[in-house]
Design brief:
The chain has one domain. 69% of the residues lie in helices and 0% in strands. The chain has 10 helices and no strands. The radius of gyration is 21 Å and the shape is globular.
């Protein structure tokens, strides 16, 4: 026996026009973007020690669908500061593409650590600094430029050189 559910044309038309973005789904479910941010961060903190990379990648993907750019920047910033994974360069690139000033303090914290947990990259500090200098340059606010100037004076020669190079490139535009 086959059951058919019929729907009146006005309801069908309404449903056809409803957007089905993750943001709309969250709103319909009563989920606030801050809740999504906290969920992603806490679940990522749990997934990394378990080496549950499938979950970690799914959580990273979720962060891309946060429509509020400040909350997305804060989420990505928190993920950037987490040790134990190998997606720091990718996250930095996502931060660069987003270009939101809320990312500046997170980048500053990464620079302050002098990349203590990025040894897995086997890259020199100046190379890693390039990631962050590009992100700060693309954010481009006075605060981002001030952060670059601050770290251009870093006692870490690789960080200082990387920031001075990017500042020179900005000045020569």
């Amino acid at each position: 026996m086959v059951f058919r559910i019929t729907m009146d044309q006005s309801l069908r038309a309404l449903l056809d026009h409803i957007s089905v973005t993750p943001s709309d789904q969250n709103q319909l479910a009563g989920i606030d973007p801050h809740i999504v941010k906290h969920y992603i961060i806490s679940e990522t903190e749990a997934a990394i020690p378990k080496r549950d990379w499938k979950r970690w990648y799914a959580l990273l993907e979720m962060s891309y669908f946060i429509e509020d750019e400040q909350i997305q920047a804060e989420t990505l910033g928190n993920l950037l500061l987490m040790p134990g994974h190998d997606r720091h360069q990718e996250i930095t690139r996502d931060i660069q593409d987003l270009g939101h000033p809320a990312s500046i303090p997170y980048i500053g914290k990464m620079l302050e650590t002098q990349y203590a947990f990025l040894t897995y990259t086997c890259s020199e500090d100046q190379v890693i600094t390039k990631w962050f200098s590009h992100a700060l340059a693309d954010i481009g606010t006075p605060e981002a430029i001030a952060m670059m100037c601050k770290f251009a004076l870093s006692p870490n020669r690789g960080i200082a050189r990387g920031m001075r190079y990017r500042l020179q490139r900005i000045r020569n535009r």
